[in-house]
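FOLDING PROBLEM:
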Amino acid sequence: MIRLISFDVWNTLLDINVMVENLVKALSELLGVPENDLMQKILETREEIKKIRKSQSGSPEKALEESQELLARALEVDVEIVKRAVAKATLTVDESILLPGVKETLKELHGKYIITTTGNVMFWPSAYTRLILEKFGLADYITKQFYSDEIKAYKPMREAFLAPLKYFNVSPEEALHIGDTKAEDFEGALKVGMYACWINPEAERVERIHERGFVVKSVKDLLEVLPQI
């Protein structure tokens, strides 16, 4: 029986593309550089960071600082510019950052399960993500939020998935994690014994692809998965 559901945040609850577009706009305003030039460097830096985390070669204690410094180096600017830009980006996001069906799904699950977030941070601190979740009412349905810059562990590390379970005294087989990144979210959760849902927008239907794992098209499909566990 599932007691706890853990959600990745970006591209699971919130649209990362909206945040990145706002970041590009903020950097463009601060630097006087065309947005297209900045977007490519941000995307390349994101992929570099994902590789570092997949190999677990980065420092969990400095995950945020390392990602900000990598972006600053790619842009050839002081890291203070990156910090200012992510702050400006956070202040300007609108409701388009919410992915379809997210609020309705969280509302449906609220009160029936312990709802948590298990999120990595990249260019902006978790405090900014918390602000966005509060601003658009998603935090009302979340029991507790866990982020890599707070717990000093990032997905796919075991410690990142186990932190919510230890806090609420829930066993891995009583928990499910859902996220959009196969290596970080899906495989990471399975390795600690949790159930897992991999969000793949190209999926045609909900499908069981592991003894404890499912592929889904969006968060909304979670309501179809839970009765199967």
In short: The CA atoms of residues 115 and 142 lie 5 Å apart. The two ends are 7 Å apart (CA to CA). The first strand starts at residue 4 and ends at 7. The chain has a mean pLDDT of 96.
